[in-house]
Amino acid sequence: MAVKKQDWGLSQRGLKDASRHREKIRESIQKNIADIISDASIITRKKGQIVKVPIRGLKSYRFVFRRESSGGTGGGQGKGEKGDVIGRQPIGEDKPGQAGDRPGVDYLETEIDIEELIEMMLQDLGLPNLKKKAFTETATSKGWKYEGIERTGIISHLDKKRTIKEAVRRTAAFVGELMRETGQSEEKCRKALSIAHGDLILAKKMLLERKSIKQARGDILPLFSEDLRYRTIEKDIEYQSNAVVLAMMDVSGSMGTMKKYLARSFFFWLVEFLRLLYNQVQIRFIAHTTEAKLVDEHEFFHKGESGGTFCHSAYDLAIHLVETEYNPSRWNIYPFHFSDGEDFEPIKTVTSAKKLLHLGVNMLGYGEIQADAYNASR
Amino acid sequence: METFAKELHLEKRQSKSNSGDFETFFGDDSNPFVGVILKDKSHVYLALKEFLRKEQSF
């Protein structure tokens, strides 16, 4: 008799669907990664938090009903074939900046870890194995560490365990020799060695002369100066590769909020990527109009000033920082300057940039933001 | 950017993106410089891409 059992496998199917859904989300993120990484919710996130990213173009299959105005009702008897599209979501034709009268397109939001997003970006960038740069390492002392064992040293470095081991090993060798030469039992040899305070010749003499050793203890371990072992200590040095990003930006009136936002987005991701390469990444903010000054992050991205623009002032301050605080032999230096391209002394700027390059920075970057308000806010 | 390109002898490259042309300027091995022109927020990603690629090539 054959027993037929139908396996619905619902739980497996659920797992498969969930896995497929995750794959779809991943595909969607990878497709729209250029827009997603400049999303405000990501670059303003607190450290360790997961971020929510909008996933457009990912929706479940559903019936789309025809609009009444398009004519026709119910099941048709006409020429329709299997697979024919019977209705489409109307595509919005609203122009940017104008109020629309149609419903918007729904999108899903998914939570993602920033590290996962970085991994996707690395794959997309074609840099799956970002090479660690180690040519500018600094040695930092972590304290002291035990390095080895020696026969001489100071008493505070005495390694008791190893000393006792040495004494046990030597005593065992002496007992073995006494047994071979006198033919006495191990217990007697040990006792004789104990009475003779570890002196092999004296113990041998006692055993050969058959002196009474019954009262002696055989568990006393004589300790000789040759048994002593000392630990040697050395400085524990760790080699670290550090990097500094010198973030320079024109904060004159022409650099609007949206332009600053693009710069902020770039600096955020640059620091995240450099953290993959270096143990420690610092970022210094240099804001400038006609004069440059070191500012904090908030002031850098949120405060603006009126007046003209001398970009060379930022490069000169960067040169000063490199010369005084970030020696290129110990730091990996990445200066990056953002401006809208309006500079009253461009030749001086290039001269200062050349000087910065000659100091030995890893890479000098310049971003000219020509985006208008609409493009940048999209 | 023009002054940088002229004085530092940068090589100009142009690539098409969904939101218009994306222009990059590269220095040679003795001149580790990358210049980018951002016209749209999606260009931030392209700028990062070029910067990291160039950085890894050294």
SSE string of chain B, helices as H and strands as E: HEEEH
Distance between the termini of chain A: 69 Å
Estimated radius of gyration of chain B:
11 Å
Estimate the strand proportion of chain A. Answer: 15-25%
Number of helices of chain A: 12
Secondary structural class of chain B: alpha+beta
Count of helical segments of chain B?
2
Distance between the termini of chain B: 23 Å
Mean pLDDT metric of chain B: 82
- Oligomer class: heterodimer
| Spans of at least 5 consecutive residues with low confidence of chain B | none
* Series of secondary-structure elements of chain A, N-terminal to C-terminal: HHHEEHEHHHEHEEHHEHEH
- The proportion of strand residues of chain B reads 25-35%
User: What's the pLDDT, averaged over the residues of chain A?
Assistant: 76
Radius of gyration of chain A: 39 Å
The biggest beta sheet of chain B reads: 3 strands, antiparallel
Task: Identify the notable features of this structure and list them briefly.
heterodimer; A: 378 residues; alpha/beta; six-stranded mixed beta sheet; two-stranded antiparallel ribbon; 12 helices; 38% helix; disordered C terminus; B: 58 residues; alpha+beta; three-stranded antiparallel beta sheet; 2 helices; 3 strands; globular
Describe this entry's structure for a reader.
Chain A is α/β, with parallel strands linked by helices. In chain A, 38% of the residues lie in helices and 19% in strands. Chain A has helices at 10-31, 33-36, 40-43, 114-125, 160-182, 186-195, 200-208, 257-277, 297-302, 312-324, 346-358, 373-377; strands at 51-55, 108-112, 137-150, 230-250, 280-288, 292-295, 332-339, 364-369. In chain A, the strands form two sheets. In chain A, strands 3, 4, 5, 6, 7 and 8 form a six-stranded mixed β-sheet that branches. In chain A, strands 1-2 form a two-stranded antiparallel ribbon. The two termini of chain A are 69 Å apart. The model of chain A is unreliable at 92-97 and 373-378 (pLDDT under 50). Chain B is α+β, with helices and mostly antiparallel strands and 58 residues long. Helix content of chain B is 36%, strand content 34%. Chain B has two helices and three strands, in the order αβββα. In chain B, strands 1-2-3 form a three-stranded antiparallel β-sheet, covered by helices on one side. Chains A and B meet through helix 2, helix 8, helix 11 and strand 8 of A and helix 1, strand 3 and helix 2 of B.
